[in-house]
């Protein structure tokens, strides 16, 4: 059984050995058992269902959330010689009829389908007449009402349990905390003994979280390290998406916008350009979601606070799927906390859901404000752990802490003395003793807290107040204009006066002049760089001729291996990871010729 799986792994995908728990999962499913697979993005989840589908009799049915994602996966499989197709509502009638002939004729290894299409009665009836090797539900966290990306159509997939009781079921995801995992197992009737938890760590991603100081300057500074590389910039609003994309174009970047308010054709055209390009920056709202199967995304930047740790993990996980070094930057400030809190309180959801969302926001703020290793905090949220990683900003430059007990008392007293109705900027001005008409108008130049905070500057006071909000000692008036008030926990703090250690705000990123070499450049030696670029150009030429994304030909990682190994024959090229039989037949001569030119 495992010998068959290894043969498929080598001949189809070009790899000699499975990674992590892949071998156990593949053997488990080939044997006819169900499986829940939680594996980090880039960890090889797709192979866990693709190889059993090829090895078992019948056709593998894969439920996937987005048409663009399905199209990419089908294109990549066909390049590798796998008989794959996608069934969706956009297919012309003649293509749909031809596809059903292939399905019933047994000439497909894998069929991808969206849940909305699959759950149509006519589709279910016709699939009931087909021998299925397995049913794989990708992005299975969408099934959970407690997950960050709940989709009602996914919830209805539990009907498959009764309709196909003898077909192995797989649920796969990269993002699921314990309540979400339990819900998936329950609804799809998968036993806990059939669960494979491979961990959450993405060691190739470097996490950086900064206070918003000058967001555009901070973003520009971050992007200097990624010239000529693809990445994603996430924004909270449609307007900000458009404005940021236009600004980046003015800065010389090939930047595109993507949000739910755009015309569908324009969104699809922009996604196509991103998928097919090698140096495109996509500026997007979370509408640009799961349909990202692009392995060479070198960075993900959030210039607004994401919705939760799950959302942050999922969105940053779109970077570095090929395993090469990649960067994740998150900027956040006081306004982000207020806005996210407002979203929760004003949402039309039951109180238990709101409580859960508040807890998720608190956990995210804990990640943002930690003085310890970011990766440890991130993984602990999912019940995972690691040693201090050395690959996040707090490990590279540990933040300084100071005894903020007195500063917190001053800030809370100032909020109280001014009536618990003014925003952050006003409170900071009172603490610093700023003389202006507004403060004089309200008589706050005569309160006891006026000017008592001159030991700290404006930036430090903003950081202190932001941390007090994150610690839930201060609340933000969501219905009004962002006025600050003291929470019950804040009143307890003023009464009990416990020691409180706070972070000293880091120096503004824009002032740091060092620019690191990009990830792709770091992975290629100086001697191999010209050949690597020539191989990339050949790949792009082939991809354009076929109108497919370059990475479905070969990943960057495979090109790096080719540049280093410099194979001179078909047999030598077959030894390079990522070169399967079909791709060797199709592309071997062209790439060997490029290598020969650089001998």
UniProtKB/TrEMBL annotation:
Highest taxon listed in the record's lineage: Bacteria
Keyword terms of this UniProt record: ATP-binding, DNA damage, DNA recombination, DNA repair, DNA-binding, Helicase, Hydrolase, Isomerase, Metal-binding, Nucleotide-binding, Zinc
Domain (Rhodanese): residue spans on this chain: 208-270
Domain named Helicase C-terminal: residues: 218-362
Matches recorded under Gene3D superfamilies: HRDC domain, P-loop containing nucleotide triphosphate hydrolases, Winged helix-like DNA-binding domain superfamily/Winged helix DNA-binding domain
Pfam families recorded: DEAD, Helicase_C, HRDC, RecQ_Zn_bind, RQC
One of the protein's GO biological processes: DNA repair
GO cellular component: bacterial nucleoid; cytoplasm; replisome
Family matches, as InterPro entries: DEAD/DEAH_box_helicase_dom, DNA_helicase_ATP-dep_RecQ, DNA_helicase_ATP-dep_RecQ_bac, Helicase_ATP-bd, Helicase_C-like, HRDC-like_sf, HRDC_dom, HRDC_dom_sf
HRDC domain location: 525-599
Known EC number: 5.6.2.4
Signal peptide (UniProt feature, chain positions): none
Enzyme class: isomerase
GO molecular function (one): metal ion binding
Domain Helicase ATP-binding as annotated: residue spans: 26-194
Cofactor(s) in the UniProt record: Zn(2+); Mg(2+)
Residue runs in coiled coils: none
Catalytic activity: Couples ATP hydrolysis with the unwinding of duplex DNA by translocating in the 3'-5' direction
The family this protein is said to belong to: Belongs to the helicase family. RecQ subfamily.
Protein name as annotated: DNA helicase RecQ
């Amino acid at each position: 059984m495992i010998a068959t799986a290894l043969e498929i792994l080598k001949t189809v995908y070009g790899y000699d050995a499975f990674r992590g728990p892949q071998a156990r999962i593949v053997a488990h499913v080939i044997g006819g058992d169900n499986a829940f697979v939680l594996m980090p993005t880039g960890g090889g989840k797709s192979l866990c269902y693709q190889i059993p589908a090829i090895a078992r009799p019948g056709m593998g049915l894969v439920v996937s959330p987005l048409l663009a994602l399905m199209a990419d996966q089908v294109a990549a499989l066909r390049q590798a010689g796998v008989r794959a197709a996608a069934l969706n509502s956009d297919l012309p009638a003649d293509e749909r009829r031809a596809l059903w002939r292939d399905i019933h004729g047994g000439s497909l290894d894998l069929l991808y389908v969206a849940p909305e299409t699959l759950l149509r009665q006519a589709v279910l009836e016709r699939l009931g007449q087909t021998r299925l090797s397995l049913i794989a539900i990708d992005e299975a966290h969408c099934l959970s009402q407690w997950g960050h990306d709940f989709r009602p159509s996914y919830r209805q997939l539990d009907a498959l349990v009764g309709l196909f009781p003898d077909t192995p079921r797989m649920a796969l995801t990269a993002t699921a905390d314990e309540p979400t995992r339990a819900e998936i197992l329950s609804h799809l009737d998968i036993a806990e003994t059939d669960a494979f938890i491979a961990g959450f760590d993405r060691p190739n991603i470097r996490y950086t979280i900064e206070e918003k100081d000058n967001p555009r300057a901070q973003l520009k500074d971050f992007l200097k390290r990624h010239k000529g590389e693809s990445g994603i910039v996430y924004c909270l609003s449609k307007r900000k998406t458009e404005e940021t994309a236009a600004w980046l174009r003015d800065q010389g970047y090939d930047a595109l916008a993507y949000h739910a308010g755009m015309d569908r054709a324009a969104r699809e055209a922009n996604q196509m350009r991103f998928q097919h390009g090698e140096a495109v920056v996509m500026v997007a709202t979370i509408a640009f979601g799961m349909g990202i199967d692009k392995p060479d995304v070198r960075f993900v930047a959030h210039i607004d606070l994401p919705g939760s740790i799950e959302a942050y993990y999922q969105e940053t996980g779109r970077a570095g799927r090929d395993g090469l070094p990649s960067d994740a930057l998150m900027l956040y400030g006081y306004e982000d906390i207020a806005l996210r809190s407002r979203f929760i309180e004003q949402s039309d959801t039951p109180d238990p859901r709101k409580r859960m969302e508040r807890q998720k926001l608190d956990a995210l703020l804990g990640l943002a404000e930690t003085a310890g290793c970011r990766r440890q905090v991130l993984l602990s949220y999912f019940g995972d752990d690691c040693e201090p990683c050395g690959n996040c900003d707090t490990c590279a430059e540990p933040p300084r802490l100071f005894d903020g007990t007195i500063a917190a008392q001053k800030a809370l007293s100032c909020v109280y003395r001014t009536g618990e109705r003014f925003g952050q900027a006003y409170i900071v001005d009172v603490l610093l003793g700023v003389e202006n008409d507004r403060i004089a108008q309200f008589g706050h130049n005569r309160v006891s807290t006026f000017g008592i905070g001159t030991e700290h500057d404006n930036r430090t006071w903003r950081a202190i107040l932001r941390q007090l909000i994150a610690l839930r000692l201060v609340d933000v008036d969501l219905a009004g204009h962002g006025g600050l008030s003291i929470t019950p926990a804040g009143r307890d703090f003023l009464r009990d006066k416990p020691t409180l250690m706070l972070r000293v705000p880091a120096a503004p990123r824009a002032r740091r002049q060092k620019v690191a070499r990009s990830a792709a450049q770091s992975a290629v030696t100086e001697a191999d760089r010209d050949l690597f670029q020539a191989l990339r150009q050949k790949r792009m030429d082939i991809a354009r001729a076929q109108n497919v994304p370059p990475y479905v030909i070969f990943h960057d990682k495979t090109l790096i291996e080719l540049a280093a190994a410099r194979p001179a024959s078909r047999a030598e090229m077959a030894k390079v990871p990522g070169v399967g039989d079909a791709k060797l037949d199709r592309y071997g001569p062209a790439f060997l010729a490029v290598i020969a030119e650089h001998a």
